[in-house]
Amino acid sequence: MTSSTNQIPSWPWVGLDDCPILDWRPMEGRHFRCGSFQSSTSDEDLVEVGDGGTLDFSLAGDVPPLDREMAPGFLSYAGNGFDEIGQMRDFLEEPLPGVGTYEDFNTIDWVREKSRDRDRHREITNRSKESTFALIHSISDAFSGWLLMLLIGLSAGALAGLIDISTHWLTDLKEGVCLNGFWYNHEHCCWNSRNITFQDRDKCPEWQTWAELLTRKKNGGALAYSLNYFIYTAWALLFSLLAVLLVRGFAPYACGSGIPEIKTILSGFIIRGYLGKWTLLVKTVTLVLAVASGLSLGKEGPLVHVACCCGNILCHLFTKYRKNEAKRREVLSAAAAAGVSVAFGAPIGGVLFSLEEVSYYFPLKTLWRSFFAALVAAFTLRSINPFGNSRLVLFYVEFHAPWHLLELAPFVLLGVFGGLWGAAFIRANIAWCRRRKTTRLGRYPVAEVLVVTAATAVLAFPNQYTRMSTSELISELFNDCGRLDSSQLCDYVRNGTPGEGGGPDRLAGPEVQSAMWQLALALALKGVITVFTFGMKVPSGLFIPSMAVGAIVGRLLGVGMEQLALHHPDWVLFEAWCQPGADCITPGLYAMVGAAACLGGVTRMTVSLVVIMFELTGGLEYIVPLMAAAVTSKWVADAAAGRQGIYDSHIRLNGYPFLEAKEEFTHKTLAADAMRPRRPADPPLTALPQDAMTLGDVEGVLGSTGYSGYPVVLSRESQRLVGFVLRRDLLISIENARQTQEGIVTSSMVSFSDHSPPLPPNSPPILNLRPILDLSPFTVTDHTPMEIVVDIFRKLGLRQCLVTHNGKLLGIITKKDVLKHIAQLANQDPDSILFN
């Protein structure tokens, strides 16, 4: 191939701007300096040689010493820098500042990072045999991972407890205030009251609604109702306004769930600031405000983001995690497990969630440390006891009645509903979010949040099941009615007397019938308003709203089955196992199964979902109903809307460079079909010749192109591949050579070979850049099946591979090329996958 100056547009979202550790031993009396190289380089760009101006580097005119004996009349300098006693300088002894780091919106080199860590570990192991201090350092290095997990668990548990306590207080503040202390929520306010009965334990004189406080009347009628209605809405608007203003002004990355971005980060993508301290602070505060505002969202998903922020910040305390992006991602996988552990009170479910849903690379060592971090986080939250019930979650329940085999039919029916609702929700939410991104709606995030909050508050207040927090609603729906329960859902008629609670012959009383209508209206509101809420510029989780929708449907179905069994005990369905006068059906169990079904339909979780749900209830005997519902919902949702869950759909919507391992590549295409250039009309791929360019030529290429890497070939005529060099390596190496090596000028030849070519007399010395050359870039032939290429990119975390034919360079395939190729084969717009 020949040289070309045609430019190919660059995409700044996956880059190769990092470089291997390049250490130069300084010459006598000199020091090396690495400048700041700000560029939007990307590994998605073809590497081309362009003519043009050179970069402004300072010149040096001294002649360096000879590095080896040359033929008479010729002078050569390899650039490796021999000192006075003829020893070659070690490039790997003292790292240069800026080497090995990544630009924003770039992808890390997994293979290189793991190799670095192995070299570091090997060096520490070898040094540990030399002295006691080195041995202690080796032990502390091995223990640092467990210490980091301990700190992550403690911080995640403490923040989760703070968020839970603050959320309950602000949620109750919308309805009233405690006279004994405004910092008490409703439940805590009435704990020590002596003027309450068990039936009315939520009503105490110490707690007053805003209408009672302002009008000094206990029963104010329509005026009191209107006043409470107005203040409830006003508080909701104030909380949501503060949340969106804080997010917009201080930490834009604090909005949303965070799980799609965390999945992308764990796959190797760099998003600077997404897991920073400002994001952590703002997300913690605004999450409390957003949940307390009454919006149809939860705190469970954002708690994963909060825990990962803690993990990322604490990584800076330990050198091996601060300087290695691959090791840091192992920590973030464990932090995600800790986040789910404190969100649901499910340590084991948290580990499985991290493994099944968010992690890209999950070795066995990470599994153990994730388990430890989840354990510490759950223990910390349990010690804080934010709910006052010695439990890790608000809606912990225990069912005492067993389930029957014939009940699998309604459980599977709930799974079908969960799958259909999940598919419909994903389609509707993605369509609305795409409209928000492509229309003027996205320019007014504050107005959008206020409008949705106002609509939610106005519609939610008249219904007691939408007025209460979503977690309390789920707790109410999961509840297995007993004799002392005063809930409206437990107003059964026993022996002709309403209000006696549970027991044999539980006929639905008037309160139960009224509750069914209210739950149906709550279902409609939750199902619709969540579509518009998820994705706004406030922290918003989807776990709890999805579970609420499923729990409502499950409770409705459970009560229906209960009444059928009561009124028609002679039916074949009930005759064999439901004896007259016995409690055959547990509506709370149906609510739990429905919650699992809807959550599975939205997220496509299976194993981790079942474990989380049975950890919530504390009963192992309900695993089979949960498994049946979870598997059915996933099958139905996959058939209705594809295999992508809500988080994968948002990754695709935002154009993040994420190769989903769950999707199978079934097409019979070759590497030549995806590489660039593909057609004869495409600009030819050009590369740096091994020994035929001057320093000015190389600087001209760097100055006129923004590409992040350049293949190096034997010569422009042969196009035999030698290696691959990164732009960032070139910039740092050239600047340091200019500053520290005498005789390096613009006309100096640049060599990537181990034997420098001979030079005429009085020529400037050669700058040898072979130490920064990757001599083993990943290559495939043009006849390699794309199925294999896709697997290589997925399993090795590659950013690019070079395509050859009989050893000659033909083209390049990047992760973006793979994504575009998959989109084209799926009849989708290839440009839709670009990151914005």
Structural topology:
Layout: H1 110-127, H2 132-173, E1 176-178, H3 186-191, E2 207-209, H4 210-215, H5 221-250, H6 259-266, H7 277-292, H8 300-315, H9 319-322, H10 325-344, H11 347-358, H12 364-384, H13 408-438, H14 445-460, H15 464-467, H16 470-478, E3 492-494, E4 497-498, E5 507-508, H17 510-533, H18 543-567, H19 572-575, H20 587-603, H21 607-617, H22 623-641, H23 646-654, E6 688-689, E7 693-694, H24 695-704, E8 709-713, E9 721-726, H25 727-740, E10 749-751, E11 767-768, E12 779-781, H26 786-796, E13 800-805, E14 808-814, H27 815-825
Parallel strand pairs: 6-8, 10-11, 12-13
Antiparallel strand pairs: 1-2, 3-4, 3-5, 7-10, 8-9, 13-14
Helix pairs in contact: 2-7, 2-8, 2-10, 2-12, 5-7, 5-14, 6-23, 7-8, 8-10, 10-11, 10-12, 11-12, 11-21, 13-17, 13-18, 13-20, 13-22, 13-23, 14-17, 16-18, 17-18, 18-20, 20-22, 21-22
Index terms:
14 strands, disordered N terminus, 3-stranded mixed beta sheet, mainly alpha, 27 helices, 836 residues, 3-stranded antiparallel beta sheet, 50% helix, 6% strand, single chain
